Every structure is written in C-alpha cells, then in structure tokens.
Amino acid sequence: MSDMDMDRRNFLKTSVGAAAVAIAPGMMLYSVAQAKGEGASSKVRWGMLIDTNQCKPGCNDCVTACNNENGLSGETKATDSQWIRKIDIKDISTGREISLPMMCQHCEHPPCVDVCPTNASMKRADGIVLVDKHRCIGCRYCMMACPYKARSFVHEPLTGQNPDVPRGKGTVESCTLCVHRIDVGGKPACSEACPNQAIVFGDLNDENSEIAQKVRSVASVQVRADLRLNPGVRYQGI
Amino acid sequence: MNLLRDQSAALRTRSPLAYLQGMSRGSLRRALHIDLLATVPARVTSALLLVLVCVAQPSYAVEAQPKLDIGKGGQCVEDTQWMRKNHMHLLKHGRDDALRLGIRDEKHSLKTCIECHASTKDDSVTARADSFCVGCHKYEAVKLDCFECHSGTRKSAWLQQRNAK
C-alpha cells in the first residue's frame, strides 16, 4: 500500500469521525429540548361532561367560582366579561325546565380560530382554545363567529388581575378551562365548585379517566352538534 | 480593544468622568486631540487632565443611577449584567412557549421575576417610581406594556387582597 493510499484512508477515517461529532450535538440538543418542558400534548384531549340533571336552577356557584378565580367583576352588563353563564331553558311542548352552565365549548374545529386575522385565537395541542392576547387586536371577529356566544371583549382598563390570569383592555377573552390550574395538575374552578359534582372534568382520550368512562356509559350530547365542531364540552340530560 | 471595552463601560455608566478615567493615557491624548502635548511628560498631562475633569464635572453633572427596590433579591437565575441586557428576550420567547405550546419555564417566567423582585413593602414591581421594573424603565425611557394585562404583584399578596374582599 502506497503512502498516498494511507493518507486517503486516514482522511476518510477522520472525516467520518468529524461528521459524527458534528451531528451528535444536534441530536443531543433535540433530546434535551424534548425533555426540558413537555408542554401541551396532543395525546390529551381535555373536556367536560355536564350533567344537567344535577345542575340546580338558581344555583350560581360555578359562575361565582369562575369570576373569583379569573378576577372577573361578576357584573352582567353588556360590556362586562362573562366567561360562564347559567342558562335556564324550557321545552314548550312538555314544560320540562332545565338549567345548565354555558361557556367556551373548546371545539376541535373552532370557528373563532378560523376567522382570526392575527392567529391570536388558537387551539392548544391538548384541545384548549385560547386567545393569545399578545397578538389580539380586538377586532372581535371571533365573537361573531362563535355559535355559543362564549367570548367577551374587555372594554375598560383593568387593575388587580390574578397573577396567573392576565387580562387587559382591547382584547377578547373567554373560558380558558382554567389552563393555569390544568398545567399544574389541577382542574377548572367551576368543576371544583359545583356542589353536586355536575361538572366532570378530565382527559377524553384517557380511557381510564372518569370522564371517558362516563361518556362511554351514559347518553350525552354536544350543543349544536349539527355544526360538527366537535366540542370538548358535552351535556347529559338535554 | 481595551479602549472599546472602556468606552462601553463608560456608556453604561453614562458618566463622562468614568469615560475619561477608563482610558489609557495615550488614547486620552488622541481623544482630546492634544497632539501638541505629546512631548510633555506624562505627569503634566495627568495634572492637566485632573484640572479638565474638575472643571468639566459641574457642567456634565453625573446622572444618578436609578436606585431600585429589588425586593428579596439574592441570587438571580442568571448573571445580573446578562439579565439587564437580555431579560426582555427571555420574557418574549417564554410567553409564546407558555401560552401557545404550554411549556411553562418556571425559572424564567415573569411570575418568578415578580416573586423575588416585588418590593417587600408593597409586594409590587410597578407600584412606585423606584419599583424594580418601573425604576429602570423610567430611567431608560422604555415603555413598559407588560403590566397593562399582567399583574405586577406577588400571588400571595393578590390572594390576601382577594380573600379580604
């Protein structure tokens, strides 16, 4: 073997080594980035099942808890934010009356996200529909698009917000499913506050979760299912 | 290189005195264009410089550095000087990750900043002119938008206030 061949052989060997070194840091960075913070996972689908048979007319505990948690005033004037409302409905033909809480339904195909011109209205990987107020320009298209009238616009300057729930004038807001609680392993304030446990919260994709077992065994519907938005909030007894 | 570093240090402190003190004698001569004095012994130059500085002092009144109420303070999550320069990048990237992806980096979150740096007197980083965020931003004339939506108080203080209602 000539000297020249030897050089070529060594050159190739070192090249392969150098390439390995060049790739390795990239791979490590990737694995570290994955491990650092998992964030919202698309394997999870957060949802709620609301049993209207257990929901008492006149009881407002879920609304109060929501206001208290998210720093809403609790007023119901046209310009006040309401993230959750109690609705009383009556079937005229039978006279049957029921009461239920209505809030952002956290659709799989949210119309509010479709219409947003700045991509502020967004769906997180785990199904929670949020407003990115850093981007929201307050155009209110999403409020018009939402079939559930779930969103509110902040008209006045605010002070004394919950450190976990930033809210500000000129932006649209709605139920966040108490995302700040969910991210630390908690559940939404309304679900926690209901005296009759009428609001079951959990991961619809986890077949062992209470909510998944319940939607499997009892009849439940989505409000305005005809729109095929596949809301994460389901109702029982309507 | 030395000169560059000294200049940047002087710019940071914003004091003409510090700017002159930080320079080497040679660069000082060049900067002040005292080429004629190039042959004068160094000691004379220094004396002249001292006089210049003393005369200059009243007209270039040294601006007072903002005196901040740093709250609990202590060991910051990063080097202090680095944080002065880069905190906004941490907050800006962190906000998108936290909100849109759900990756909550507790170490660099605005809430964690406030937890340490809110004043021990009023639990706020914005309430007074010397509060941690306001103090510097006022001095640098950089508008602070964060707190139009975000709370500038500690969570514990907010809870106390809410429960008192």
Question: Outline of this structure?
Answer:
The complex is a heterodimer of chains A (238) and B (165). Chain A is of the alpha+beta class.
Q: How would you characterize the overall build of this protein?
A:
- The complex is a heterodimer of chains A (238) and B (165).
- Helices cover 30% and strands 16% of the residues of chain A.
- The N and C termini of chain A lie far apart (87 Å).
- In chain A, the strands form four sheets. A three-stranded mixed sheet of chain A has the order 8-1-9. A two-stranded antiparallel ribbon of chain A has the order 2-3.
- Chain A folds into two domains: 1-37; 46-236, Alpha-Beta Plaits (2-Layer Sandwich).
- Chain A has 238 residues and is α+β, with helices and mostly antiparallel strands.
- Chain B has 165 residues and is an all-alpha fold.
- Chain B has two domains: 2-59, no CATH class; 80-164, no CATH class.
- Chain B has helices spanning 2-13, 16-21, 25-32, 42-59, 80-101, 110-117, 132-140, 155-164.
- The interface between A and B is medium-sized, with 29 and 22 residues.
Task: Sum up the structure in keywords.
heterodimer, A: 238 residues, alpha+beta, Alpha-Beta Plaits, two-stranded antiparallel sheet, 9 strands, 16% strand, B: 165 residues, 2 domains
